[in-house]
Design goal:
Structural class: alpha+beta
Distance between the termini: 76 Å
CATH class of one domain: Alpha Beta
Radius of gyration: 33 Å
CATH architecture of one domain: 2-Layer Sandwich
Oligomer: single chain
Number of helices: 14
Shape: globular
Helix content: 40-55%
Strand content: 15-25%
Number of strands: 25
Largest sheet: 6 strands, antiparallel
């Protein structure tokens, strides 16, 4: 490992008695009275920086988790709402087939959103529930999900506070929509009930310390679900006061406070779902966030003590000779630069670079991170081309030039290095200029390397989890919604149309029942690959449910163009699918909706296409129906 102290010439010879003269001792006392407060003041300042670093790091992690968990909750509530709309339509048009439809929804959603479905009639009596047949006819007029729709006339989803469900005697969150006739008169209410702990099931996926918490609340402060290590739904139904994420606050934000439920002080980040009146909060205990730097604080204290001792000895020696004092001050400057690096760097591979020659000496750990047997490498010119990814080179060189020129206080860069087996590994490099000449030109630079593959892989995994369907690899409902909203914004600006083709697979259930779910899963994968191959690069094929898919055509001139694509999809679905020795035959029912003809936003367009698909099913399946024909 390279030396971390600058070389110096031997001091000039002095007599031992010179150091004990009264004047020297007096000057030494004055010198220490001036210097030691500075040293320990710096120690105190740097100690306080750790708290700021902990808060900044915690805020960044909490913001990422809150965004991901919010999208998960939004997707879940969207599935529940879509289920309510579909089941309400069946209840109004084919009540005899309603229990079967509820059963199919339960099978499709048992892994995604397990829910209980209840229908009240106009008087608030239980007309249907899959909780238990014995509840039929029960008077539920005081149920909040029924009462909520007595005072509103428009068609909106209502999300209740967490309540003890009188049918299951367990905590539940109720999602409901009204059932009305053609004149808008209330005919009843359809309700889906979800257990609160379902919304915080993702707690084990986060790594924010033993005292982290994840909560889903209403904007009025009512706790819907809350999870901490070893405790789920502690605080469900409790109303929290003085919340910074009230209804008038921004969509997202951060704050620090002592928890009203368990008394633990945490950093919190919230992210709202304004369309549902809910907010997700993710909290990390302040103690856990600051614990990351406990070792660095201890090291800093020892460094402060060591620097104090060094200053005492150097100052004592400097008072004996001018030359010794000059060299002592230079050594002090180098020591302070390395001290600052020790405080800010988090890597464990050390490098020491001669800025003039561009040759960097590597410690054993640094060589392991770079996967090289050489103890000295070139840090300049084309030598970097052989080990650094081409896409990362411009930023790396810009950061290095900026620091050497004095534009940045420290050097920091993340880049990929080529390993000897040809793979790429993510590395975080940090450093600082530790020595300059009389003109201020950099002479020497020291720093560290850290391997950050685990963090990069986790970030990629979280992105995939938020935007991809795990079975087929297709975009999920969240990513489809983002692309659809972008396509609508572009179409509104440029004046073209956007088409949505919503379809599911006819005869898919018999495949599952006959051959098992493993064959059904492989069939969904075969369908995804075949249909994706037949679309344009700009088009999106997404899986939004069990056997439900959506095709987004971001640029479409007319309904005829969308119908051509839909007919081609139907043709592809009618062709046999081979799974080993099995030959599987299915078909599809497809619904088409156009922007702006059938809807002015993403939700309305998907709803119109979904209704058109159900119309295709109602007229015999294996066909294409446009929204205006439905």
């Amino acid at each position: 490992m390279p030396s971390l102290t600058p070389s110096a010439k031997p001091p000039s010879r002095v007599r031992l008695g010179d150091f004990f003269r009264p004047r020297v001792l007096r000057d030494l006392a004055i010198y220490l009275a001036l210097m030691l407060p500075i040293v320990w003041g710096l120690v105190a300042v740097e100690q306080s920086r750790f708290a700021s670093l902990a808060q900044a790091g915690s805020k960044r992690d909490l913001r990422n988790y809150a965004r991901v968990f919010t999208e998960e909750v939004r997707a879940t509530v969207g599935i529940v709402d879509l289920s309510l709309i579909q089941l309400r339509s069946i209840w109004q048009n084919d009540r005899a087939d309603f229990p079967k439809a509820v059963g199919e929804h339960a099978r499709h959603l048992r892994q995604r959103v397990p829910l209980m479905v209840t229908v009240f009639d106009a008087q608030g009596r239980v007309a249907y529930t899959n909780a238990a047949p014995s509840h039929g006819g029960r008077d539920m007029q005081q149920a909040i999900s029924y009462q909520a729709h007595l005072g509103i006339s428009d068609d909106r989803i209502y999300v209740s506070r967490p309540v003890i469900c009188p049918l299951t005697h367990a905590w539940a969150v109720q999602f409901s929509r009204s059932v009305r006739d053609a004149q808008g008169r209330l005919q009843g209410v359809i309700m889906a009930t979800v257990a609160p702990d379902y919304f915080v099931r993702f707690y084990d996926d986060i790594d924010l310390g033993p005292n982290a918490s994840v909560s889903l609340m209403r904007t009025d402060g009512t706790v819907i679900a809350r999870s901490t290590r070893g405790s789920i739904n502690h605080g469900t139904g409790q109303v929290l006061k003085d919340n910074p994420h009230a209804s008038h606050s921004p969509v997202t934000g951060s704050f620090r406070r002592v928890g009203q439920i368990d008394g633990i002080e945490r950093f919190y980040t919230w992210h709202k779902l304004p369309e549902y009146g809910m907010v997700v909060t993710v909290g990390e205990a302040v103690q856990d966030a600051e614990a990351r730097f406990t070792q660095q604080r201890a090291v800093l204290t020892w460094v402060g003590a060591a620097v104090s001792l060094v200053l005492t000895l150097l100052g004592w020696a400097a008072l004996g000779a001018t030359d010794r004092r000059r060299r002592a001050l230079k050594a002090l400057a180098a020591a302070e630069a390395r001290w600052k690096l020790a405080l800010s760097a988090t890597g464990d591979g050390v490098w020491d670079c001669d800025v003039v020659t561009g040759l960097a000496t590597l410690s054993a750990r640094a060589r392991k991170i770079l996967d090289t047997e050489r103890s000295v490498i070139s840090w300049y010119g084309s030598a970097l081309d052989a080990i650094v990814h081409p896409d990362d080179l411009p930023e790396l060189r810009a950061q290095l030039r900026g620091h050497l020129a004095g534009k940045t206080e420290d050097f920091a860069a993340e880049f990929r290095v080529r390993l000897r087996n040809g793979d790429w590994s993510w590395t975080d490099a940090r450093g600082t200029v530790s020595e300059r000449d009389e003109l201020g030109m950099p002479m020497r630079m020291v720093g560290t390397f850290s391997n950050i593959d685990a963090r990069k892989h986790e970030e990629a995994r979280m992105r995939r989890l938020a935007h991809e369907d795990a079975l087929t690899g297709l975009p999920n409902r969240v990513l489809l919604g983002d692309r659809l909203r972008q396509a609508i914004r572009t179409a509104s600006r440029d004046g073209h149309k956007v088409a949505v083709i919503y379809f599911d697979l006819d005869q898919f259930k018999p495949v599952n029942d006959t051959h098992g779910h493993a064959v059904g899963d492989r069939l969904l994968q075969l369908v995804a690959r075949r249909l994706r191959a037949g679309l344009r690069e700009a088009d999106t094929l997404a899986r939004v449910g069990g056997d439900e898919f959506v095709v987004l055509l971001p640029r479409c001139d007319s309904l005829a163009d969308a119908s051509t694509v839909a007919e081609n999809i139907l043709y592809q679905l009618n062709q046999p699918f081979e799974d080993g020795e099995l030959v599987l035959r299915i078909s599809g029912s497809l619904g088409i909706a156009l922007f702006p003809d059938d809807g002015m936003d993403a939700e309305a367009l998907l709803h119109a296409a979904d209704l058109a698909m159900y119309d295709a099913k109602a007229h015999g399946r294996n066909r294409v129906t446009a929204a205006y024909q439905a």
